[in-house]
Amino acid sequence: MIFTVAMPKWSADAQASVQRFRRAHDPQFGLIAPHFTLVFGATLEEEAYVAHVRAVARAAKPLAFSLSHAMLYYTGDGPAHVYLVASEGAAALTRLYRQLHGGPMAPWLRLDKPFVPHITIAALGDPAAALQIADEWNAQNLCLSGEIDALTAGRISDGGFRVLAETSLEATQ
């Protein structure tokens, strides 16, 4: 499976705050650094996939984002997640998500679950415990901000995220 993520460019303090929570509560902590997932796994041929991601990236502008609150995301199926939800930049991240799920990627668009632009900081089997973690994060009254200036396509293999291609967001208008 191939994934597409956007890695935040932000301060070392923001990275440390997020990583502290992820280390304690996110089983994917060691797999990949904090990120916005834009394609949650596809089986398209690698060359075609990377070409599509590059085309989307070249047509998109860098974007600012901010994360001002954590929320519980639980569908009743699988683990409960705690998301740091994009307040600023949510519309631009959603546009990237939709553009990435166009053309050859259309079969991987999930219509059964809403897309919420986020960075995951926890995944637990107990939704009440996840809600407590969200409340703990929110009690800090943090607002983290940064920029997204590239899209990264990669695979999960050998216990890590292996980058296939990283393409800068290049549009000027």
Cα shape: globular
Quick one: CATH superfamily? Cyclic phosphodiesterase
Q: Give the domain tally.
A: 1
H and E string:
EEHEHEEHEHEEE
Overall number of strands: 9
Individual helix count: 4
Strand-residue proportion: 35-45%
Query: End-to-end distance, in Å?
Result: 33 Å
Name the helicity range.
25-40%
Classify the fold: give the CATH topology. Answer: Cyclic Phosphodiesterase, Chain: A
What integer value in Å does the Rg equal?
Answer: 16 Å
- Second-tier CATH architecture: Alpha-Beta Complex
Strand order of the largest sheet: 2-7-4-5-6
Mean pLDDT: 95
Please state the structural category: alpha+beta
- The CATH class, by name, is Alpha Beta
Strand count, sense and closure of the main sheet?
A: 5 strands, antiparallel
Explain the overall architecture.
With 173 residues, the chain is an alpha+beta fold. It has a single domain (2-168), classed as Cyclic phosphodiesterase (Cyclic Phosphodiesterase, Chain: A, Alpha-Beta Complex). It is 29% helix and 35% strand. The chain is built from four helices and nine strands, in the order ββαβαββαβαβββ. The protein has helices at residues 12-25, 46-58, 90-100, 127-139, and strands at 2-6, 9-10, 36-42, 63-73, 80-86, 118-124, 144-148, 150-157, 160-168. The strands form two sheets. The chain has a five-stranded antiparallel sheet with strand order 2-7-4-5-6, with helices on both faces. A hairpin with a 2-residue loop joins strand 8 (150-157) and strand 9 (160-168). The radius of gyration is 16 Å and the shape is globular.
